[in-house]
Amino acid sequence: MEAVELKTVHDLLLHSEERVELIGGDIVRRPMTRFAHARVQSKTDRTLGPFADDTSPRGWWILTDVSVAYEPHECPSHDLAGWRRERLPKPLDGVIDLPPDWVCEIVSPGHEKKDRITIPLLLQRHRVPWFWLIWPEQRTLIAHALEDGGYRVVARLTATDRKPVRVPPFEAMALDLAGILEG
């Protein structure tokens, strides 16, 4: 039996393609972004803008399509990720190797296993406090909080109700979930 050589972050950085990520030691192509996915991603980013505009230690850095090097063989690209400015006072040069405080994955058809299982397990290992999953097609958001080393669902919301909602860790602002998830 031949030993499998796991790719590293260094291999990822040398890769000729841009839309790739490192998952489990394999360099894999990211799925083609569909309209609904891109729309929800940009609307979520714009909606959370006030948190990113707050330059105090209570503020956030919120980034889209950002790669995070968690381990030598794990460097996924998150749809959205955020760091509290108290933990990351200024932007980093190069690869980000500090786990975020919040990650949001927008579930892509055909990539549900990665978004629902692989990424959450990686985030749990690195104690990322907040994790959201958004399904554009079902117009649903599920927010998770890290408790006792595992994720617990703290909000399961659908956009059918037009009332503003408060979703951790951004509960300081009522979010228009229907507006974020409409096509």
UniProtKB/TrEMBL annotation:
Return the CDD domains for the record. DUF820-like
Show the Pfam families listed in the entry. Answer: Uma2
In this entry, which stretches build a coiled coil?
Answer: none
- Note the InterPro entries from the entry: Nuclease_put_TT1808 (IPR012296), Restrct_endonuc-II-like (IPR011335), Uma2 (IPR008538)
Task: Write down the superkingdom of origin.
Answer: Bacteria
Residues annotated as domain Putative restriction endonuclease: 10-163
Q: Which PANTHER family match?
A: SLL0198 PROTEIN-RELATED, SLL1222 PROTEIN
Name this protein carries in UniProt: Putative restriction endonuclease domain-containing protein
Provenance organism? Lamprobacter modestohalophilus
